[in-house]
Amino acid sequence: QVQLVESGGGLVQAGGSLRLSCAASGRTFSSYAMGWSRQAPGKEREFVAIFSWSGFNTYYADSVKGRFTISRDNAKNTVYLQMNSLKPEDTAVYYCAAAPTFRGSTPVGEVHWGQGTQVTVSS
User: Fold this and answer.
1) What is the reported pLDDT for 27?
2) Is 42 left (phi over 0), alpha (psi -120 to 50) or beta?
3) For residue range 32-65, what is the model confidence (pLDDT) as tens digits?
């Protein structure tokens, strides 16, 4: 079992940057693949960045490639999402997720979710 708590959201102007953090509890954190997903009003939740448990594989949605970077620190049980060159269309609630693995952008197995953090990008 793992519990996730996100932080770092807020209001930023277009072109700005934010770093989201996701602190995990539980001794099995390093065995999970970690991902960041987002849900904008009226839209389905989508994964934008995924980091495999091994650290060798990452996935980025086309909409964020080159602007977002996911990283993890297993010693701190924390995963980060560095978001640069933010656009108004990045406005959403961002959720941290842990799953045994992902197939592409689809989690496989039981998914654990954080409570979400709001990111608002003004134009």
Assistant:
1) 67
2) left
3) 899 999 999 999 999 999 988 777 789 999 999 9
Distance CA 113, CA 121 (A): 23
Q: Are 28 and 12 in contact (CB under 8 A)?
A: no
Whether the Cβ atoms of residue 49 and residue 83 lie closer than 8 Å to each other:
no
3-state secondary structure 42-109: CCCCEEEEEECCCCCCEEECCCCCCCEEEEEECCCCEEEEEECCCCHHHCEEEEEEEECEEECCEEEC
| 5 token code pair | 């708590």
Q: Which amino acid is at 81?
A: L
Please give the Cα distance from 90 to 2 (Å, whole number).
27
Q: What is the DSSP letter of 29?
A: G
Q: Distance between CA atoms of 110 and 55, rounded to whole angstroms?
A: 20
